[in-house]
Every structure is written in C-alpha cells, then in structure tokens.
Amino acid sequence: MSVVATNLCGIPLRNPLIAAAGTAGYGAEIADVVPASRFGAITTKSITPESRAGNPPWRVTDLPAGMLNAIGLANLGLDRFVDEVLPGLADLDTVLIGSIAGHCIDDYVEVATAFGDDAAASLRLVELNVSCPNTATGRLLGSDPDALAALVAAVREALGAKPMLVKLSPGDSDVAGLAIAAVRAGADGLTVANTYPAMSIDPETRRSRIGRAAGGMSGPAVHPIAVKLVHDVRARLAAEGLPVPIVGIGGVQSWSDAAEFTLAGATAVGMGTGLFVDPGAPRRVVRGLEKWVLRQDAAGIDDLVGGFEP
Ligand SMILES: Cc1cc2nc3c(=O)[nH]c(=O)nc-3n(C[C@H](O)[C@H](O)[C@H](O)COP(=O)(O)O)c2cc1C
Question: Cβ distance 167 to 139 under 8 Å?
C-alpha cells in the first residue's frame, strides 16, 4: 500500500490531496486538465437548491500573494446537478465529495436529503459550506455556534449515514469554538478553512478590483494563518475529547505546504488556488509527500498527522 494512502471519516483515499470546493468545477472540469486519479478526492463546487447566476464580474482578481474572489455560489441548482452532472461524475477515478451551500437551514436540508439518497451514491462524503450569509439575519450561517449546531444537526438527520465534513469560516475569532459546536452536533470531520474576508482597491478608479466591495482571499497569503487554525482546532478538539479528522486548506502550492498541514494535524489537505497556478502541482505535491514520509522513516503519512513539535 502507498505510504500516502489515508482514510477520511471511514472513506479510503489513495493520497491526502483534495481538490478544494469551487476550484475544480463540478469535478469533470478539472479532470480535463489533471487526471482525477492524481487526487485523493475532488470536492464539487457548492450546490444550492435553486440555480444561482453568481456575482457580477470581475469575480476573481490576481494579487501578489494569492487570489481574491467573489463568485457568489454560481451553480446549476440541485435538480440539474443531480440529473445532468452527477451521472457523469460516477466514472471519475477518485473519491467525490459533494459540497452543499444555502441561505437557511431548509436550503441545506433539501440538498442534503438528495445527497443522502441512493441516486447520489457516487458522492461518498458531503461538505457543508457554512460561509454563506443567512437571509434572515445577514450574518454568516457558520459564525454563531448555536446557529451552526442547529444547521449541522438538521443536515445530519437529512443525510443519513453518509459522512459529513463542516467547512469552517475563518473570519470568526473563535474558529475552534465553532469546530466544537459542529462536532457535538454531528459533524464527522472539519475542513479548515474557507477563504478569508478581504478587499483590494484600485487607487486610480477608487473602486474594488472585483465586482463587490469585498471578497474571499486564498493562496499563499493565507497559508500560515490556516496552518495555525488547523493546529488550534485540533488541540481544542483533543482537549474536549472530540478527535475528528481535519482537512487543512489554504495556500498549498508545494509538498512542503501540504506537509505543514499534516504536522499541524490535518488528515487530508485541500488545494484550490494552486490548481489555477500550475496543473502539474497535484502530481508534484503527492510525489513530494511520498518522499517526505520515507525520509521521516514513517510507515505512512497517518503516523505524521499532528507530529508538530513546538
Ligand atoms: C474561485 C474560487 C471558488 C471557490 N468556490 C468555493 C465553493 O463553491 N465552495 C466552498 O466551500 N469554497 C469555495 N472556495 C474556497 C476554496 O475551496 C478554498 O477553501 C480556498 O480557496 C482556500 O484554499 P486555497 O488557498 O488552496 O485556494 C473557492 C475558492 C476560489 C478561489
């Protein structure tokens, strides 16, 4: 067995590298450029009950240390995803993770009910994108521990036995507190984290460089912040006796970025912006991790998870 093989919430992955939600299309789009078999898993873009056109352009801008985006959850909507896209994803040679988004609990429950159904058997895990504004309160659904717990508990019931990751929003000051609330409410694992609230202003036009005033920052700029979040979330969960797996995401471009996440406590590692920069990166990351595991004299990468020594 490969030294980088792992297991996420009971689902075997051939390696820990996951194409991050929204950066690989629905799954088939990235497979046109990078063979799906290079990834341990691919996460779909977030699906909402109704189709969404997304935000006006520009939705993405390049910055010196990463990317600022305000996509606005553009997607086909649940029915068309299940009828037109999902059947074509069943042949991808990797694990598929279905991402769910919405603006109220009912939205998530509707998508989770469909994703828990036999017709969606090719989605082996589900990830909740909780970085969405709640239409009732205007606050992010994932920014208040009680609201997050209510959301996760409702989805847990709708989803049945399928493993559920909750992808935390890093804008909140107590991300570990949100992690604990999510796990107590039924999350099987956590993804840490989504993009970071950010702005970029063109001084000549005095306007935003994207179609909205603010967006989400990703790429190398966020990497050290995300590594600390993974470390802190893992430590707080362990202290509470809630040792669930964590997917570390933020700024991975190289094997050593991924290895940092492993040592901080991540069972698997997402890559988003890095896929736009270099489609060859997934292969380099996985090969680099294999050599690193051997250099560390470990039997497998799982033995290095949380192996950071202060
Ligand atoms: C263009 C773009 C689209 C994204 N769409 C989604 C999405 O649909 N759902 C989601 O949970 N995260 C989405 N994300 C966030 C990524 O999955 C990831 O958490 C973030 O980009 C940080 O990782 P990175 O630095 O490797 O890009 C998106 C990010 C980008 C750059």
Answer: no
Asked whether residue 310 is domain-assigned, the answer is: no
Evaluate: CB of 226 within 6 angstroms of ligand 1: no
Active site residue 132: yes
- The set of residues, in sequence order, having a beta carbon less than 8 Å from that of 274 and lying 6+ positions away, is 219, 251, 252, 253, 281, 285
Catalytic residue among 4, 125, 132, 293: 132
Tens of pLDDT, residues 44-82: 999 999 999 999 999 999 999 999 999 999 999 999 999
Q: Which atom of ligand 1 is nearest to the CA of 194?
A: 19
Looking at the domain assignment, is residue 29 inside a domain? yes
| pLDDT range class, residue 173, cuts 50, 70, 90 | confident
The CA distance from 87 to 110, in Å, is: 19
DSSP state of 81: I
For residue 1, being part of any structural domain is answered with no
Q: What would the pLDDT profile of 102-121 be if each residue is shown by its tens digit?
A: 999 999 999 999 999 999 99
Q: How many domains does the chain have?
A: 1
Buried b (16+ CB within 10 A) or exposed e, 232-263: bbbebbeeeeeebbbbbbbbbbbbebbbbbbb
Q: What is the DSSP letter of 54?
A: -
Q: Domain for residue 309, yes or no?
A: no
Measured by CA distance, the residue closest to atom 6 of ligand 1 is 22
Range of the domain at 242: 6-304
Q: How far is the CA of 135 from the centre of ligand 1 (A)?
A: 21
Q: What is the pLDDT of residues 175-201, one digit of tens each?
A: 999 999 999 999 999 999 999 999 999
* CATH number of 189's domain: 3.20.20.70
69 lines ligand 1 (CB under 6 A): yes
152 three-state secondary structure: helix
Calculate how far, in angstroms, residue 24's C-alpha sits from the geometric centre of ligand 1. Answer: 9
